[in-house]
Amino acid sequence: GPPAAEVAGGCFSSHPSDGPTSVKYTPRGIFLFWAPLASTWLMMALEGPFLAAVIARLLDAKFNLAAYGVATAFAMLVEAPIIMLMSASTALVEDARSYARLRNFAYALNAFATGLLVLVLVPPVFDVIMERLIGLPHDIARLTYGALWFFLPWPGAIGYRRFLHGLLIRAGRTRQVAVGTVMRLLAMSGCALALAVATDLPGAWVGAAALSTGVVVEALATRWMAAPRVRELLCTPASSGADDAMGYTDIARFYYPLALTSLLGLTVQPTLTFFMGRAALPIESLAVFPVVGGLSFLFRAFALSYQDAAIALLGRNNEHAAPVFRFAWGLALATTGALALVTFTPAVHVWFGTISGLSPDLAALAVTPARVLVPLPALSVLLSVLRAVMVQARRT
What we know:
Elements: H1 4-7, H2 27-56, H3 61-79, H4 85-92, H5 96-120, H6 123-133, H7 138-150, H8 154-170, H9 174-198, H10 203-234, H11 248-266, H12 268-276, H13 282-313, H14 321-343, H15 347-355, H16 360-372, H17 376-392
Helix pairs in contact: 2-9, 2-10, 2-13, 3-7, 3-8, 3-10, 3-13, 4-5, 4-8, 4-13, 5-8, 5-10, 7-10, 8-10, 9-10, 13-14, 13-16, 13-17, 14-17, 15-16
């Protein structure tokens, strides 16, 4: 059962909100519900370009950008088992029993993901993966190893935060999600600037430490903001419906395909890292990769944020599918059009050269891959809304 600390303060309501019932299913109404989630993802997307710009202005920028990109890719790969906890809690948590079970399930997943990262940090394992398998030069591998140690709090903090975000989204409290992300961004940027100015740490380590600081602060802030919602859930008795009686086996059966989806998607970056390490201009390509990915993610963030909004908005029987899909089509055209506007105009040189701080040769190398990624935001929107339909129907 739930610990006593979580029920301290008493029950505020015996019937927590079962969803965003006050939403008007017009383009404006959907936008107002989704906008805080979009701002959350946009702020997260700004982290990559900001940290890349900081690293690019420190010593040995090329090597540190490459190491930061590799370390981030592996941190995200380790994060794969817990990345869908927000979708799961949005869809499943309705009462005290479902809250307690999914919370315990989330704790176990967080421990598993952290254990995977610890395993990668065992020196013989790390050497086999990074130097023998991927073929990283020794200097970049050494920087990557240190950066991964700074990422150690990352999986647990993100898993816990995403579980709590799902509770808030289901209750329609998306603005609190955005507030937590503002705190994350402030903590991340403050840590990065302080370490860059006051220490001699390599740039890759500065970036990793700043990201971890941000997610830990956000997890703590979200726990504080979610406390009223948690109390509401703990005061809600379980209903007698079959769907509400999910045990741990049922949760695992529901969640496994979601985790596998994340794992397959997040293996893309390590796979590309593997091939770039063996292709022409390996160091230059690895240095440019996180910067190009950061630009693309700025626009894909809008798409990714729409999935959990759609899960909450569709309704149990997809009765609101038509307005949700209409909004998705407009979002797809807007995001891909905006990325095309940046990459196929002189703005691309301003972004990579002036804002990102890349050297002229690296900035020139970044242009073509950035243009290749133009369709990605639109495709991500369509994937998000289709996945939302499947998750809401529990057909994972």
